[in-house]
Amino acid sequence: MIRTALRHHAPTELAEAVALLDSHAERAAVLGGGTMLVPRLTRGELDLDHVIDLRRLGLGTATVTDGRVRVGARATYANLLAAPAFPGTAQLLQRVAGGITGGPQIRCQGTVCGSAAYANPSTEVPAALVALDATMHLHGPGGARTAPAAAFFLDAYKVDLRRGELLTGVTVAARPARLGYCKLKLAEGSWPIATAAAVLPPAGAADHAPGYRGAVVTLGAISTRPIKLDLAPVLDDAGRLPGDADVDEWVAARIGEPWEDELAPGGYRRMVAGAVLRRALHRAHEENR
Amino acid sequence: MTEPASEPVPERDVAMTVNGRARRVRCEDRHLLVEVLREQLRLKGTHAGCLNGDCGACTVELDGQPVKSCLVLAAAAEGAEITTLEGVAQGGELDPVQQAFWDHDGFQCGFCLPGQIFATRWLLARDADPADTAIREALAGNLCRCTGYQSIVESVRAAAAGLRGEMGSGEVGSGVTPG
Q1: How far apart are CA B59 and CA B108, in angstroms?
Q2: pTM, two decimal places
Q3: Of B73, B122, B141, the CB nearest to A8
Q4: What is the pLDDT of residues A126-136, one digit of tens each?
């Protein structure tokens, strides 16, 4: 059981949620799906007095409007999977949602925004949002603001949320592209060791076909923050990648300090990053023939 | 991590519908749904396992969706419709998924059964004829410490076939494995 004298709040207005968060500062946390927060409270890893439950704020939908996908803070992975197929690059969100570890129970509970706000490096959402150039919607005592995903993820478990601020949703512009995704994990029930999302220009785009020119690959779970790599510097004049060993070396040199946890040491993550990147690129070509 | 003795632990009344019956419980804000179901409502079919969201033994349906009740604060379930394993059978008859698990030995000690049953119901509601990969993927959020996975997968296959009408209604509950 949770041993702290926790108080549960379920505000019905965003301003009320922000005021609660602001007034209780470090003694409060936002409750989205609960898959990260609640077990940490149970294990005694967090010592809080207040949880601010987003359930009644009407943020539980994932919608497509004018080629943009908006995911509310309370939208679960199951909500994303139940929505009509996302267009263009945004389909990466549904692909990620369908592969979230933990079976249907976790997909019905966990949220994209909760995972983003928690920023565990060994999860898929941060890198997916960076790959998609997502816009993070934040609301705090000073009102609403936005931040690009690449700037939102600051470090392991650290995001750009100021005092009293909460993440209300993310928006992704669905661009036409070829998309390839690869996730390396030990087993179906295991968290990722490495992910790679390849976003290539659409097939036939005059300046880019047929090679990888214009390709961007974002690596996840490899470092404390997602790593976005423009492949242009490594391509030859014909837009082709060099050999596997050269790609591996080029990728490894861009990782810096790799992330390590109980699933894999940093050296292993550095070693497999190139292979995962190449698989994502290969899939981007194969799946979009 | 000890609570201040001078401050009362916040508590509240929570109204929810459990297995079709309106219930009101008095609980502390820090109580998990699994604790309230087991200790206050005495619904022991919901098992407290890892309390970490890994094992699935505490699975219930909350507003029609399978969730791990160790990850839900009871206070957050205000107004929810909850089905526990006790509420799956209707009128004293096992539902087709339960019956298939019974017929095909889809359990040994039974501790993981809530997660296996609810995950199967979720799967079959969306995919009437799931491939083995889909079955295994749907069950991935549940740990069977008896390692009875093979018979669990066979139970899901049989439940799917039964619900598709590929076996007569008598066969689904007959205890006889076709073929």
Answers
A1: 18
A2: 0.93
A3: B73
A4: 999 999 999 99
